[in-house]
């Protein structure tokens, strides 16, 4: 167990999805039971601190801001108080997707992941309530690296689902606060991908592994020609083997021996 800090009770925070040119009035509220101030820095916002100055609120407070979505892309939002590294590590980050004016091409399924680190006094695998460790954060040495605040998120019976012949899109936000992800789908490639979530740019094609620095996003698409279990990982593989970072996509459907088969 761990005391997370969250937007709307989830890690990462809710995906906000709009189109270029849309205008947004955002209201944020902090529960009276909170003990610390919070704010929101949106990388999709022109304005001081990405809006963090206007949204700084005490426990029990609320703030509103208006902004126009001037440029397309997938952008992180995160808490931006002085202890922002701790707040982001504890879960206060998410994604705002500003689609181009004509939208994104249709796909069959979409998935939303957030990678972040947890810095705890207790080692990986410990039970009970874990305590935050500022020293290990200062040394950028986490005991946990996670998708969506969970060890082995979306694995086994909780794996994400898809079918042979479909095209899927993955949105990934890297909260950090410190580590760069080498994002890779074991058993597939990114047929189309937009590094930095830069949807105004032409996508890269057939990319095996893409760096996603903290404070940025990634959008990638895969085709699914065969039934398999795709493992979404950070290819700094100690984070997978020993720190909890893994998500799976279970692809069901008819075998395609012309594309892949075991021989013996």
How would you characterize this protein structure?
The chain is mostly beta strands. It has two domains: 16-99, Cupredoxins -  blue copper proteins (Immunoglobulin-like), CATH 2.60.40; 109-252, Cupredoxins -  blue copper proteins (Immunoglobulin-like), CATH 2.60.40. The chain has four helices and 17 strands. The chain has helices at residues 52-55, 84-89, 134-138, 238-241, and strands spanning 16-19, 23-29, 41-42, 62-68, 73-78, 93-99, 109-118, 144-147, 160-163, 167-176, 181-186, 190-194, 204-207, 210-212, 216-223, 228-234, 247-252. The protein is globular, with a radius of gyration of 19 Å. The protein starts with 15 loop residues before the first strand and ends in a 12-residue tail after the last strand.
Blueprint (SSEs and pairs):
Layout: E1 16-19, E2 23-29, E3 41-42, H1 52-55, E4 62-68, E5 73-78, H2 84-89, E6 93-99, E7 109-118, H3 134-138, E8 144-147, E9 160-163, E10 167-176, E11 181-186, E12 190-194, E13 204-207, E14 210-212, E15 216-223, E16 228-234, H4 238-241, E17 247-252
Parallel strand pairs: 1-6, 7-10, 9-17
Antiparallel strand pairs: 2-4, 3-5, 5-6, 7-8, 10-15, 11-14, 11-16, 12-13, 12-15, 16-17
């Amino acid at each position: 167990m761990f005391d997370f800090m969250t937007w709307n009770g989830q890690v990462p925070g809710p995906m906000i999805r709009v189109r270029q040119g849309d205008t947004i009035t955002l209201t944020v509220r902090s529960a009276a039971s909170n003990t610390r101030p919070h704010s929101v820095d949106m990388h999709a916002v022109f304005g001081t601190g990405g809006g963090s100055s206007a949204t700084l609120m005490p426990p029990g407070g609320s703030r509103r801001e208006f902004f126009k979505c001037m440029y397309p892309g997938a952008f992180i939002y995160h808490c931006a108080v002085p202890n922002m590294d701790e707040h982001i590590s504890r879960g206060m980050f998410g994604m705002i997707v500003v689609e181009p004016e004509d939208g994104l091409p249709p796909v069959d399924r979409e998935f939303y992941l957030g990678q972040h680190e947890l810095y705890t006094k207790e080692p990986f695998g410990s039970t009970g309530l874990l305590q935050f460790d500022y020293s290990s954060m200062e040394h950028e040495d986490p005991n946990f690296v996670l998708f969506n605040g969970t060890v082995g998120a979306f694995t086994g019976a909780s794996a994400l689902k898809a079918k042979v012949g479909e095209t899927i899109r993955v949105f990934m936000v890297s909260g950090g606060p410190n580590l760069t992800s080498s994002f890779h789908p074991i058993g597939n490639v990114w047929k189309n991908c937009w590094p930095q979530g830069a949807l105004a740019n032409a996508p890269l094609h057939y990319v095996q592994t893409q760096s996603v620095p903290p404070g940025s996003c990634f959008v990638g698409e895969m085709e699914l020609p065969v039934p398999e279990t795709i493992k979404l990982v950070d290819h700094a593989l100690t984070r997978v083997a020993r720190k909890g970072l893994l998500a799976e996509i279970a692809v069901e459907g008819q075998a395609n021996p012309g594309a892949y088969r075991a021989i013996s």
